[in-house]
C-alpha cells in the first residue's frame, strides 16, 4: 500500500476518472498503479503518479478534468487552485495597475495564464511580466526564457507556493519570483535560480520597496501593495 504523504491541495480523482484514464491511454494497467483516497500511486515505490503536460490536456479533452475545474500542473502533480478571496483579488488588481502605468512594449503583463516550464509542469501564476511577443503567445505558451518576473499571491497557499512550486520555478530557470505572503504581510523575493533553489532571498515588509531586477525603475512600495 502506498504511504506517501499527501499534499492538501492535490486534485482528487474517483474510480470513474481512474478507468477513463486507462481508456484514453493516460494510464497503463501493466505499469503498476493504484487509486487510493482519490490519488493515483505507482505501486513500485509508493510515490504519486506523475502526469505529463500531454496527459493533462488529454484529461481535459476527455472530461476527466471538468471545464470549470481550477487546476494546474506542477511537477507532474495536478493541484487544485484555491478560491480567490477579496484580498487576493485586490492585490492582483494592484499589481496590474502598477505595471500597466509603464510604457507599453517593455513587457507583456499576464494574469493567471499558463507557463510551460517542462514536460511535467504548466502552472498558472497570478502575474507574469513576459518578453513581448509578436503574436502575443497565441501559437504557444510562454517558456521560462520568456519570463522576466513571476508573481504568486498567497494566502492559504503559501506553503504550496514555497515548498512545491518555488523549487520547480528554480529548476526551470525562472530568473525572479515574488511571493506576496498575505498571511504574514510580507513580500518574498527570490533571485538567482539554480538547480536546488534560489541564491538570493529577500523578505520585505511595510516601509520597504522593491523593483524587478531587470527593471530597476519600476519601484513598488510594499505597504501600498499589502494595505487592507
List the keywords.
2 domains; six-stranded mixed sheet; 228 residues; tt1808, chain A; three-stranded antiparallel sheet; alpha+beta; 27% strand
Architecture overview:
The protein has helices spanning 15-23, 53-61, 86-100, 158-172, 222-226; strands at 33-36, 39-42, 47-48, 71-74, 77-80, 108-111, 127-130, 147-154, 176-181, 186-194, 197-204, 209-210, 220-221. It has 228 residues and is of the alpha+beta class. It folds into 2 domains: 15-80, no CATH class; 86-226, tt1808, chain A. The chain is elongated and about 55 Å long. The relative contact order is 0.11. Mean pLDDT is 93; it is low at 1-6.
Layout of helices and strands:
Layout lengths: L14 H9 L9 E4 L2 E4 L4 E2 L4 H9 L9 E4 L2 E4 L5 H15 L7 E4 L15 E4 L16 E8 L3 H15 L3 E6 L4 E9 L2 E8 L4 E2 L9 E2 H5 L2
Parallel strand pairs: 8-9
Antiparallel strand pairs: 1-2, 2-3, 4-5, 6-7, 7-8, 9-10, 10-11, 12-13
From the alpha carbons, calculate the radius of gyration and give it in angstroms. Answer: 19 Å
How many domains would you count in the coordinates?
2
Q: Sketch the topology as an H/E string, one letter per element.
A: HEEEHEEHEEEHEEEEEH
The strands making up the biggest β-sheet line up spatially as 6-7-8-9-10-11
Strand content: 25-35%
Q: What's the CATH class of the largest domain, please?
A: Alpha Beta
The low-pLDDT segments are 1-6
Distance between the termini: 47 Å
Largest sheet: 6 strands, mixed
Name the shape in a single word: elongated
CATH topology of the largest domain: tt1808, chain A
Helix percentage = 10-25%
Q: Decide which structural class fits the backbone.
A: alpha+beta
How many β-strand runs?
13
Number of helices: 5
The CATH homologous superfamily name of the largest domain equals tt1808, chain A
CATH architecture of the largest domain: Alpha-Beta Complex
Amino acid at each position: 500500500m502506498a504511504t506517501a504523504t499527501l499534499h492538501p491541495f492535490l486534485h482528487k480523482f474517483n474510480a470513474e476518472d481512474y478507468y477513463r484514464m486507462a481508456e484514453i491511454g493516460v494510464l497503463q494497467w501493466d505499469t503498476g498503479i493504484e487509486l487510493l483516497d482519490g490519488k493515483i500511486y505507482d505501486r513500485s515505490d509508493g510515490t504519486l503518479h506523475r502526469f505529463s503536460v500531454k496527459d493533462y490536456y488529454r484529461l481535459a479533452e476527455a472530461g476527466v478534468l471538468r471545464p470549470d475545474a481550477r487546476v494546474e500542473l506542477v511537477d507532474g502533480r495536478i493541484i487544485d487552485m484555491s478560491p480567490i478571496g477579496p484580498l487576493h483579488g485586490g492585490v492582483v488588481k494592484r499589481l496590474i495597475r502598477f505595471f500597466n502605468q509603464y510604457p507599453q512594449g517593455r513587457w507583456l503583463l499576464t494574469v493567471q495564464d499558463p507557463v510551460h516550464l517542462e514536460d511535467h509542469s504548466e502552472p498558472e501564476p497570478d502575474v507574469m511580466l513576459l518578453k513581448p511577443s509578436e503574436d502575443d503567445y497565441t501559437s504557444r505558451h510562454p517558456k521560462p526564457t520568456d519570463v522576466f518576473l513571476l508573481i504568486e499571491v498567497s494566502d492559504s497557499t503559501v506553503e504550496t507556493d514555497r515548498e512545491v512550486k518555488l523549487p520547480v520555478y528554480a529548476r526551470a530557470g525562472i530568473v525572479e519570483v515574488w511571493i506576496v505572503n498575505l498571511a504574514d504581510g510580507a513580500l518574498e523575493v527570490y533571485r538567482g535560480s539554480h538547480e536546488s533553489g534560489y541564491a538570493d532571498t529577500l523578505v520585505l515588509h511595510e516601509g520597504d520597496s522593491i523593483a524587478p531586477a531587470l527593471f530597476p525603475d519600476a519601484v513598488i512600495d510594499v505597504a501600498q501593495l499589502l494595505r487592507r
